[in-house]
Structure formats: C-alpha cells, structure tokens
Amino acid sequence: MLFPTTLVGSYPQPEWLIDRKKLAGRFPPRVRARELWRIPDALLAEAQDDATLLAIRAQEEAGLDIITDGEIRRESYSNRFATALEGVDIDNPGTALDRSGHPNPVPRIVGKIRRKHAVEIEDLKFLRAHTKKAVKMTVSMDYAVAVNEEIRDLFAAGADIVQIDEPYMQARPEKARRYGLAALNRALEGVGGTTAVHICFGYAAVIHSRPSGYSFLSELSGCSCNQVSIETAQSNLDCAVLKALPGKKIILGVIDLNDMAVETPQTVAARHGGGNAADGRRSHPPRPAFRRPGKHHRRTRLRDEVPAPRGGVRENEGNGRGREAHAHRAAAQGTRGSPRVATPTPVSLWLGWPSGGMGRAFLIRWKGNAL
Domain holding 338: CATH number? Predict the structure, then answer.
C-alpha cells in the first residue's frame, strides 16, 4: 500500500519574502514580528500569495499526497492565530519563558478572549483553489472555544484535515495533565472532519537537546482527535510507546532536521517501520516543519529532485550527479521481530536543501505491503 505523505505544516519562505537572518537570530515570535518581512505592507499580501503558490507546486512536484499552504503567511506557527483574537494586547506584550527557558514576548490577556473573525479561511480557499489533492490546515492551540470555531469554519470551507499544533503539552506536562486534555477536547467538540493533534520537542534549530521519550503522549489516547502527529527521528524515539495510543492513526515524523546528512532510504524505512509496527496500525510519515530552512529555495531546484521513471531516483542534476540511481529496497522490521511492512520501495524521492542553512528536509514517499 501507499503511505500518504504530507508536511507537518510549514515550508521555507523564500529569501525575497522574509529576512532569514533576522528569523534565525531570534526565538520563534509569539507576538507580531512585521520586521521580518522584506516586502512593503502594500504589496505583502500579493507576495505571500505568490510564495504560497510556489510552496503548493513544490509539494505537488515532490509527490506529496496531502498539501498544506506551507504557513507562508505566518511569522511562526502560532502567532497568526493568537494575535488575531479579541482580548489580547499585542502592542504591550507580556513575557513568558519559552521551552528553552528564555524569556519571550507573548500576547498579554486584557479581557475576555473571543474570535473576532475567521483567521485562516482565506488561506484555505487559496490553497483549495490551487490544488486538486487533499488539503490540510493547521491551527495553533489557543483559547479552546476560539479554536473550535475556527476548525468548524475550516471544515465548512473545504478542509480535508485540520491539525491542532500543541507542542507545549510536551514542554509543560504537569499543566497539560491538569487541564490540557480537557482544553483539546473542547477545541474539537462537535467537529465532524478528520482531525489531528501535533506534538513535538520544538524547532531543531533552537532546541538541540532532545529527551528520549515524551513526557505527555499516552494521555492523548483520551483526546477526541483522529490522528496524532509526533516527532521521532531527532530523539531516536522508541516507537513501541505508540501502543499507548490505541485507535489513533499515527502521523510519524521520520526526518532529523538537526542532522545535515541526507537520510538513506534504509534509514527512513527503519524509522517508518518501527512506527508502523507498534501495534500493526498503518501510519502516515509526514515531513517536519521547515520554518528555518536552507538557502536553496528555488522552484527549479525542486524540479530537479522529481523522481525518475520506473522507480528510479533522479539525483540533482545541478550538483554534477545528473544520473539515475536505482531505487533502494529495504525491509522494515517490526518490534520484537514481527514484520509489519514488507520491502518498501521509494517511489518518489526527495526535495531538499543541502548544507548552508539552518535546516533541510527530504520528502520521501514509500510503497509497501502491510502484513
């Protein structure tokens, strides 16, 4: 079978759109950070549309099955939604410690929080109008009632999947156990579409040290979402822990953004096989968030990485290695020696950004037979 592939959410914004040096020199913004944009305000929306269209085409050309808008219009995964709510003061922010322990400006609550208007509907309509594939939208977890309203509107406007991003439940597990799960379920209350919750250890470019396991994961078995999206590669997570999530489809992150080396198909197959083998359920291996990318974001560069016909892999012609490599085959073995995926074959291999930037990613699509 074919395991559907997707981005977790974000995709590199081109150099002409955003000042990557400024972005790399700070923690992810929680309040507005207009100084990051290179384009004047009067032309910014049009420029963001153009960059979003490039991101959509790049995903399609790479062979992804579920397309996102790349979160191109956002300064971080969370601040676009949080700063659009009524009841928060973004001009006079407060301060909170981020997961690395450093103080970071955050929206300050000054009144009753409510959603003034739909925040991401126009983004979704643009995405939906420019691809025929399934589409996913991401919403950062915030005030649960406001998130619930946004999710309902996104499904009504044509989203196939809506994902809530909530990495802070891993960073603040005690508080998450007290009220986090109830808040998530309130955000998902009455929602009829396919929903996912993403949890991770933070940006690889910022948080270099990873624990070997999640401090808040099994609790998500009590969440009403359909899917759970987790980072696994950089922390070398033992995917046997996924047994604690019965009934959830697992979206498995299999690319280590902290390592600039290109993963081999065998490496990715092993990571994917471990996640799939936790209890025999099938998983969707997604691609990680690419907010802090390498420097080679060129549509022609991505086109060079389109796979060759007949299962071959066309290596990037721009690096002097313009030849076809044979498709690798690897057996992904399950835990305790029980195989779950037989001889997966890469049928579409990678677009990426090599050395020279803060991050890179390689999009790999696998085909195999589930046992």
Answer: 3.20.20.210
The letter for the amino acid at 10 is S
pLDDT in tens, 68-87: 999 999 998 888 899 999 99
Show the domain range for 259. Answer: 6-370
| Beta-ladder partners of 135 | 67
Do 355 and 260 touch, CB atoms closer than 8 A? Answer: yes
Write the pLDDT tens digit of every residue in 264-303: 878 877 776 654 434 444 444 444 344 444 434 334 333 3
| pLDDT at residue 2 in the model | 63
Host H or E run for residue 250: strand 249-253
For residue 140, what are its two tokens?
């950062």
CA dist 305 and 102 (Å) reads 39
- What CA–CA distance (Å, rounded) separates 193 from 197? 13
Q: Is residue 152 part of a domain?
A: yes
Predicted TM-score (pTM) of the model is 0.75
Q: In this predicted structure, which of 222-231, 290-299, 301-310 has the lowest mean pLDDT?
A: 301-310
Inter-residue contact 201 to 210 (CB < 8 Å): yes
User: Does 310 map to a domain?
Assistant: yes
What six digits make up the tokens of 54?
A: 């490039």
Distances (CA, A) of 111 to 82, 99, 164: 14, 26, 24
Contact 284, 5 (CB under 8 A): yes
What secondary structure does DSSP assign to 19-39, as a single string?
A: -HHHHHTSPPPSS--GGGB-S
Angle formed at CA 89 by CA 83 and CA 91, multiple of 5 degrees = 90
- Asked if residue 110 belongs to a domain, the reply is yes
Q: Which two tokens stand for residue 195?
A: 């929903």
The helix-helix angle for 121-129 and 41-62 (nearest 10°) equals: 50
Residue 1 within a domain: no
Tokens (6 digits) for 70? 């790349």
Structure-token match 């956002």, residue found:
74
The number of distinct structural domains making up the chain is 1
